[in-house]
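Box 4.2: Ligand-aware structure prediction
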Amino acid sequence: MPASAVRTRYAPSPTGEPHVGNIRTALFAWLTARAGNGAFVLRIEDTDQRRKVEGAVEMQMEALRWLGVDWDEGPDVGGPYGPYVQSQRLDRYREAADRLIESGHAYRCYCSTERLSKLRKAQGQSGRAGYDRRCRDRAPEAGTIAPVVRFKMPVEGETAVHDIVRGVVTFKNDLLDDHVILKSDGFPTYHLAHLVDDRLMEISHAIRAEEWLPSLPLHARMYEAFGWDPPQFAHVPNILAPDRSKLSKRHGATSTLSYREQGYVPDAMLNFLALLGWSLDDRTDLIPREDLKRQFSLGRVSRSPAVFQTDKLDWMNGQYVKAMDPADLARALLQFWRLHPPGEIDGLPDTSLLTRIAPLISERLKSLRDAAPLTAFFFKEEVAYDAADLVQKGMDAESTKSALEASLAALELLPEFDSQSIEQALRVLAVDLGLKVGQLLGVLRVAVTGQRIAPPLFETIEILGRDRSLAAVRAASARL
Ligand code: GLU
């Protein structure tokens, strides 16, 4: 591997649903890898066994797959640095901790949990927080307590670290703690595990959430202690709700998969997430996937928090849906309905029929969820409606019935049953009947679709075909 190869990773802890904030960070890491022709690694950070949630790893993968964010190495596909699950790599962290102890950069701490909690209480009054370093320079205490391993932070001076997003960030060492890097159960903490893995997996850019910035001096000092070159760091900004508070369930969905359930299409979601904290040129909103993959750069990630605006996502989704070609939209709808069967439709419609319907509705869809109510009549033998709905403003039952009968005659006679011929015939007929075009179409719309609001009528009648359309008109007339 050339020394300059770009290798990034997404390293979720399987503690719950894939939060949109985490997936946005994954996206930045993926785009960095793709823009640099590098590799993107998926690594499961499950060293906090108490917080592990069943099924969380699968949900993370599902969210990434939905968005088309593919990984080159990971727990499922393997890779040269495996296993890509931290609980299966414990020996490596223990060895690394031993190395730091031997070189005098870390120490075993035998303080009991009672002592530590007393310390915390006392500190609660004094203001200084953190471990008092009692075991730092003492000979190990023999006893029954299984020790933790703590990293020795310098107690004076400063630690300056370069971050791609923030430039050089300087931390005062006397404010920093001697953090635990290996717990008494032999599991590493995040600080040790991610660092050992980033090194072993040759990660070139550690791209992670801003919440890790305060830990950066610790990590920088640990790299130094190991004698390893650190990766480049990029701490990406938080995502806030429009009220500028942290995005949480109270503002709506936070799980990436719930956006799939709400009918957003992956390309729109991907584009939207990419703009949460990054911009191409401060102007362009619609940036297709392939352009993102070419043009993303960490240098344009903003320091300030990004605001999650659902109305922008809605708009973007509408734009992407509108631009989809009919076969793609049909495929997207079928996939969506397979996952979330709509109440309005029994079973899954035929692909070629749906492909013909797609252009009629694509302009009207904000979300894939809007499609079922709009199109369900296409897939039903008979449509249900209230007969009174047939009667348009300015008409009565009698004139409505004759309009239906006349339409029947006109449509039956058409040599070609295409939307243009249908339109022409019905426009002429409206004049003959002394009706406004809107009145006649209103009657037929309800007769054929059962709805007052429906896709464009002439195309709808064409797609339904002569037999079904005429049967519907006949049935409507019989109800008056
Ligand atoms: N497991 C960490 C988390 O989920 C990953 C942070 C990182 O990317 O290094 O927050």
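In the box above, the bound molecule is glutamic acid. Residues 11-13, 45, 190, 194, 208, 212 surround glutamic acid (CB under 6 Å).
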